[in-house]
């Protein structure tokens, strides 16, 4: 039970104000909250599952630098599409042939792969030797933190003009694109 509680607290605390929370908020300004919730939960389970099951094994084959680079490019593309096309950019994401669920899952998964939350989950698994409880605690921690972001995104979506939301959303994605690009460069 310590593994569950420790994992939840550590991951929840580390996700507050993290890029995934802001990303969830940005997606929730133009995609239904339920879709964002389901997508984030799936991506969080996948991400934390990889941390628990494979740990550092994967990074022997896929250098984290390239994963970060792919995440940065994704953020920048979403930001630029939103900035350039405004509402139409959001419609492109919503109505892409892959749909918003795949778009959110893939963006979230790539951006969280190899970050502090996943590495913390790996360390917690090694420490507690209780992978199921670590997986449940870490997934719950990241999900609850992102629910806060989604609620804020829905609230802002109702209170602010659409044009302002497009700029905020674009800004969030572009900023995290550059931050992630910098992180990839320093690896």
Automatic annotation (TrEMBL):
Q: How does it sit in the membrane?
A: Multi-pass membrane protein
Cellular localization per UniProt: Membrane
Cleaved signal peptide residues: none
Keyword terms of this UniProt record: Membrane, Transmembrane, Transmembrane helix
Q: Which GO terms describe its molecular function?
A: metal ion transmembrane transporter activity
Q: Where are the transmembrane segments?
A: 36-59, 66-83, 132-157, 164-182
GO CC list: membrane
Q: Which family does it belong to?
A: Belongs to the GDT1 family.
Q: List the PANTHER family.
A: TRANSMEMBRANE PROTEIN 165, TRANSMEMBRANE PROTEIN HTP-1 RELATED
Name the chain's protein: GDT1 family protein
What is the scientific name of the source organism? Thermoanaerobacterium thermosaccharolyticum (strain ATCC 7956 / DSM 571 / NCIMB 9385 / NCA 3814 / NCTC 13789 / WDCM 00135 / 2032) (Clostridium thermosaccharolyticum)
